[in-house]
Design brief:
The structure is a single chain. This protein has 6 helices and 6 strands. The chain is flat. It has a single domain, classed as Luciferase-like domain (TIM Barrel), CATH 3.20.20.30. It has a 4-stranded parallel beta sheet with strand order 1-2-3-5. It has a two-stranded parallel sheet with strand order 4-6. Helix 1 packs across helix 2 and helix 2 runs parallel beside helix 3.
């Protein structure tokens, strides 16, 4: 059995000193992993989270540190403990850029990165990143394929339905 702990990356205890303290103490105590997550926005309008009745987002989301930068900071403060995201909404990022960021974290941490990714669900986050929600499903399959291609041997080559659209728009 492996045991991990969430870093204080949002809410009133979030901050560099507490993140460092929790990370170093967790490693000292023998925890296997440290986890953080992505929350791009704190929407002020009521929103349904997890299928419940619409309600304001919790105040804790007002400040949320970015997971990859946080884990890079923690990688420099620890030696053994694995560093994971639970989760990063992959559709809100260019796949090749996100793959490169995870690969960099993995290299800088000595192979300790765990890439936890998901599709996302909040319409406001999709809108703010100019990502159409119709990419949920098949678009996520392409994101994963593109990320795996980026993590493979050079030269990297990947083109799918959604990435072909982006390439045409960029020309």
């Amino acid at each position: 059995m492996e045991l991990g702990i969430a870093l204080p990356t949002s809410g009133p205890l979030a901050g560099p000193a507490n993140i460092a303290r929790v990370a170093q103490e967790a490693e000292r105590l023998g925890y296997d992993s440290l986890w953080t997550y992505k929350r791009l926005l704190r929407v002020t309008a009521p929103i349904s989270m997890g299928g419940g009745e619409p309600a304001p987002m919790p105040e804790a989301y007002r400040l949320t540190y970015d997971p990859l930068e946080t884990l890079s900071y923690v990688a420099a403060l620890t030696q053994r403990v694995r560093l994971g995201t639970s989760i990063v909404d992959a559709l809100l990022h260019p796949a090749i850029v996100l793959a490169k960021r995870f690969a960099t974290l993995d290299q800088l941490s000595g192979g300790r990165a765990v890439a936890g990714v998901g599709q996302g669900w909040m319409p406001q986050e999709f809108a703010s990143t100019n990502t159409p929600m119709y990419r949920i499903g098949a678009g996520m399959d392409e994101v994963l394929a593109a990320m795996r291609a980026r993590w493979g041997l050079d030269p990297v080559a990947y083109e799918g339905k959604f990435y072909a659209e982006l390439i045409k728009l960029a020309r």
